[in-house]
Amino acid sequence: MKDRATGRRHWRIGELAEATGLTVRTLHHYEHIGLLAPAPRTEGRQRRYDARDVRRLYRIRALRDLGLSLADIRSMLDDHRAALVDVLRAHRARVAAELERLGRLQTLLDHACTQADRDLDPEDVIATIEAMSRVMRHGSARRNGPASKDAEARWRELGAALQACMKAGEAPSAPRPRALAREALARIVEFSGGDRATMEALAHLRRLEFPKDLAGWSPALMRYLDQAMASLPKTRRAPAGRPSQEEP
Amino acid sequence: MKDRATGRRHWRIGELAEATGLTVRTLHHYEHIGLLAPAPRTEGRQRRYDARDVRRLYRIRALRDLGLSLADIRSMLDDHRAALVDVLRAHRARVAAELERLGRLQTLLDHACTQADRDLDPEDVIATIEAMSRVMRHGSARRNGPASKDAEARWRELGAALQACMKAGEAPSAPRPRALAREALARIVEFSGGDRATMEALAHLRRLEFPKDLAGWSPALMRYLDQAMASLPKTRRAPAGRPSQEEP
DNA sequence: GCTTGCACCTGACGCGACGTCAGGTTGTAG
DNA sequence: CTACAACCTGACGTCGCGTCAGGTGCAAGC
User: Does the beta-carbon distance from B113 to A88 stay under 8 Å?
Assistant: First the structure.
């Protein structure tokens, strides 16, 4: 416990591990990659650490718990002139992005789970997941596009018009709902980029339950749209005979 | 493009990769681990895929984008009788936990970044991060303890009492604030488990800025407490001569 | 038929942050 | 002096691929 030469407290590697909440293997690893300086050894080549090592490891652990990479931590601790602020800000941005991604994921998972609870066919559940996943991918891909704001506004207009029809008691097969359904269908085809799998997935989604946050369309409205679409004559949505997915 | 034997559409591995948004290497990998069935080969041992493979890969990709492991995906797609609902629910729980963790992390990072913006000494910034990290660890560790609710309530009482003193215009060195500060100090010592590093880190935190969400203590109240503590006689907080961190 | 050149093949190593043996050595308490 | 825990090194495994390296297949133009 006391070093005979200097009279100061020292730690064996196991003690250090317990004190810092790390494992012995981790300490070996840190030494191996140069994050922790090689400790002086006994005659039998066992490591003896001192208080500076303890302090450094506490800092390392705190920074590691922030999710920083060991390389970043090393540069933050060793490179006095540099990094710190930049690394922290970059990391904050990464965390924010990840948070957003996980948030979307959670709403998706919530829907999938409620589906799975009600609906017993695994095929359908997976198809719904596929559909939502597709919509999100396309949605975020198109969001960068130039006309996406117009498109979103147009969707809201369509929704409002359809809701008006519904509230006015018009049958789904009446002329006005059918015209709106025709436009909606055209937009879905456009949105899916002619990809039949996407369209099938969207159809599946429509039949079950639409994520609430996608455009603010209520399930009732979706059902109304679905019925209106069902009353449309069968349109060829893609050049006939195309078996499945293709690139445009 | 057309298979001469069956007359059906087929895909070369590069086409399949582009169609599904994966890479050729990924497809090799999936075959290697048994997630994708080995495709039939040409005479020259090149793989030829069909529409079933495309469908499977779309599903795989959707499930992968949920963050599921490839092993889980395989069992979900192959094991008809099983898993799906359980896997989804377990994954939702994992995602929720991760979301919570990242949320805490973000508030911590926000504080650290604002610190780093104002305060130019990297040492102090790291010390603050260390302090917050410690507080969170201990906080969540102790939360499971039996008396944690009492402790939290007592902290709120202390805060309220101190705030009353402050509003009443009592000097921080007046008897009542000093008594309260003494109890706060005792509780901090107890909380830190006699760990001097934790106490130093807490002190550091107190001097800078306290995370708002920790106990609802305002910065002004913290300063008031700090002044009251400063007016206390120096207490020996741990058996003298103990150099730094120890286990209890 | 021959060449060109891209697409494809297998095999292997690398990443990040360690976990987990295996097989041998050291330190210390009794 | 003898146990026996703690320590040592080295190596392989994890997860989901990326990235070469060195060789082969396929389709098209001449």
Answer: yes
**Which contacts of A146-152 are long-range, i.e. CB under 8 A and separated by 24 or more positions?**
A151/A187, A152/A215
Tokens coding B172:
């921080």
Tell me the CA distances in angstroms from A48 to A7, A15, A53, A190, B93, one per residue in order: 13, 10, 10, 68, 43
**Cα separations in angstroms, B39 against B1, B50, B70:** 15, 8, 19
Are B40 and B48 contacting, i.e. CB atoms less than 8 angstroms apart? yes
- Work out the angle between the directed axes of helices A196-208 and A175-191 (0-180°, nearest 10): 130
pLDDT in tens, B195-244: 666 666 666 666 655 544 455 566 577 678 767 777 776 543 333 333 34
Nucleotide with C1' nearest the B25 CA? D17
Question: What is the tens place of the pLDDT at every residue in B85-106?
Answer: 889 999 999 999 999 999 999 9
Give, as ranges, the nucleotides of chain C with any atom within 7 Å of a protein CB: 7-10, 16-21, 25-27
Which of A12, A78, A130 should be substituted to probe chain B, the one whose Cβ sees the most B Cβ atoms within 10 Å?
A: A130
Could you give the C-alpha distances from A157 to A199, A215, A248, B163, in angstroms and in order?
Answer: 22, 11, 29, 54
pTM: 0.75
Q: What is the pLDDT of residue A123?
A: 82
Pair B24, B35: CB distance under 8 Å: no
SS3 state of residue B49: strand
Domains of chain A and any CATH numbers:
13-79 (1.10.1660.10), 120-230 (no CATH)
Structure token pair of residue A147: 């006309």
In DSSP terms, B145 is beta-bridged to none
**CB A80 within 8 Å of CB B152:** no
φ, ψ of residue A141 in degrees (nearest 5): -70, -40
**How many CB atoms lie under 10 A from the CB of residue B142?**
15
What the block records as the tokens of B148 is 């944690």
CA distances from A102 to A94, A105, A126, B106, B180 (A): 12, 5, 19, 14, 43
> Would you call A9 helix, strand, or coil by DSSP?
strand
Contact B85 A9 (CB under 8 A): no
Residue A208 has a pLDDT of 56
Q: Is A180 exposed, middle or buried (0-12, 13-18, 19+ CB in 10 A)?
A: buried
pLDDT tens digits for range A51-82: 999 999 999 999 999 999 999 999 999 987 66
**12-41 in chain A: CB under 8 A from chain B:** 18-19
* Residue A59 sits at the chain B interface (C-beta within 8 Å): yes
| Residue A247 distance to chain B (closest CA, Å) | 6
